UniProtKB/TrEMBL annotation:
<keyword id="KW-0464">Manganese</keyword>
<feature type="site" description="Transition state stabilizer">
    <location>
        <position position="149"/>
    </location>
</feature>
<dbReference type="GO" id="GO:0046872">
    <property type="term" value="F:metal ion binding"/>
</dbReference>
<dbReference type="InterPro" id="IPR036691">
    <property type="entry name" value="Endo/exonu/phosph_ase_sf"/>
</dbReference>
<protein>
    <submittedName>
        <fullName>Exodeoxyribonuclease III</fullName>
        <ecNumber>3.1.11.2</ecNumber>
    </submittedName>
</protein>
<keyword id="KW-0479">Metal-binding</keyword>
<feature type="binding site">
    <location>
        <position position="7"/>
    </location>
    <ligand>
        <name>Mg(2+)</name>
    </ligand>
</feature>
<keyword id="KW-0460">Magnesium</keyword>
<feature type="site" description="Important for catalytic activity">
    <location>
        <position position="218"/>
    </location>
</feature>
<feature type="active site" description="Proton acceptor">
    <location>
        <position position="248"/>
    </location>
</feature>
<feature type="domain" description="Endonuclease/exonuclease/phosphatase">
    <location>
        <begin position="4"/>
        <end position="248"/>
    </location>
</feature>
<comment type="similarity">
    <text>Belongs to the DNA repair enzymes AP/ExoA family.</text>
</comment>
<dbReference type="InterPro" id="IPR005135">
    <property type="entry name" value="Endo/exonuclease/phosphatase"/>
</dbReference>
<feature type="binding site">
    <location>
        <position position="34"/>
    </location>
    <ligand>
        <name>Mg(2+)</name>
    </ligand>
</feature>
<feature type="active site" description="Proton donor/acceptor">
    <location>
        <position position="147"/>
    </location>
</feature>
<feature type="binding site">
    <location>
        <position position="247"/>
    </location>
    <ligand>
        <name>Mg(2+)</name>
    </ligand>
</feature>
<feature type="binding site">
    <location>
        <position position="248"/>
    </location>
    <ligand>
        <name>Mg(2+)</name>
    </ligand>
</feature>
C-alpha cells in the first residue's frame, strides 16, 4: 500500500498538476495540505473521476486539509484536534482508510518568533501530542502525515546556521517533535534513511530547488503496529520541478499489507 503526503499550495490553482501526479504515482491514500479553498470549492467531482474518494476540511484562501483514497471513500472520524474547540483554522482531519486511521495535519508555521503566531504553534503542538498519545493508547494502526513545519534535526535543513531563530527550527518545536517520536511513533523517512539529506520543500526564490537548498518539513509518522510493515519511501522531486508547481514535493511510503488484504 502506497501512502503519500503532499502540500499542494492551492488545490484549484494546481489541480492539473495534482491530477497528473495522481495518475503517475498511483498512491492508495494521500494527505493534502494548504488547500486554500472553502469546503464548497473543493474539486471532489474531478478527484472522483480520477478514481479517488475524498474527505476535506477547507478554509477560504488559507490552510485546509484533505484525505484521498483510491477506489474507496475515507470515513471521517475527526475534523480539528481535540482540546481546541475555538480554533478557526482548518489544519487537521482524520479518517479511516482500508483498515487504518490516517491523520492529515498542517501544523502552523509560527513565524515571526517569538510572538503570538509562535505561541499558537506551540499550543497546537501540545494538542497534537495529547491526541497522538490517545491514538497510541487505543492501539489502532495509525499514521500522522502532513506538513509539520518542523525540521527535526540539522540533517533536515540545508544551512542550519541560518535557521536558528526561525519558528520551523527553534529548539521548542524540535523538542516537541522529538517528544512526539518518543511516544512510540516512527518517522518513516528517517527509519529507512537515517543519515541521508532528504528535502521535501524548496523556496521559490534564489534557485533554491536547482541548488537543492531545501528543508525536510513533510513527515509521515507510523504507529508501532504499522512501523514493521514499512518497506520503502521517497520524495517525488519531478513534480516539484514542473512549471507552476507547489513549493513542496510529495513524500510517499510503502507498507506491506497483512492488515488490509
Amino acid at each position: 500500500m502506497k501512502i503519500a503526503t503532499f502540500n499542494v499550495n492551492g488545490i484549484n490553482g494546481r489541480l492539473g498538476l495534482l491530477l497528473d501526479w495522481l495518475a503517475e504515482a498511483q498512491p492508495d491514500a494521500v494527505c493534502l495540505q494548504e488547500l486554500k479553498a472553502p469546503d464548497e470549492k473543493f474539486p471532489a467531482a474531478l478527484l472522483e473521476k480520477a478514481g479517488y474518494g475524498a474527505v476535506w476540511h477547507g478554509q477560504k484562501s488559507w490552510n485546509g486539509v484533505a484525505i484521498l483514497a483510491r477506489g474507496s471513500e475515507p470515513v471521517v472520524t475527526r475534523r480539528g484536534l481535540p482540546g481546541s474547540p475555538d480554533d478557526d483554522q482548518s489544519r487537521y482531519i482524520e479518517a479511516a482508510v482500508r483498515g487504518m486511521l490516517i491523520g492529515c495535519l498542517y501544523l502552523p508555521n509560527g513565524n515571526p518568533a517569538p510572538g503570538p503566531k509562535f505561541d499558537y504553534k506551540l499550543r497546537w503542538l501540545e494538542n497534537l501530542l495529547l491526541h497522538a498519545q490517545d491514538l497510541l493508547a487505543a492501539g489502532v494502526p495509525a499514521i500522522l502525515a502532513g506538513d509539520y513545519n518542523v525540521m527535526p534535526t540539522e540533517l533536515d535543513v540545508y544551512a542550519p546556521e541560518r535557521w536558528r531563530d526561525d519558528a520551523l527550527f527553534r529548539p521548542e518545536v524540535r523538542a516537541a517533535y522529538a517528544r512526539l517520536v518518543d511516544q512510540g511513533w516512527t518517522d518513516a523517512v528517517r527509519q529507512l534513511h537515517p543519515e541521508e539529506r532528504i528535502y521535501t520543500f524548496w523556496k521559490y526564490w534564489r534557485n533554491a530547488f536547482e541548488r537543492d537548498a531545501g528543508l525536510r518539513i513533510d513527515h509521515l509518522l507510523l504507529s508501532p503496529s504499522l512501523a514493521p510493515h514499512l518497506t520503502a519511501c521517497g520524495v517525488d522531486r519531478t513534480a516539484r520541478a514542473r512549471d507552476h508547481s507547489s513549493d513542496h514535493a510529495a513524500v510517499w511510503i510503502e507498507l506491506d499489507d497483512p492488515i488490509w488484504r
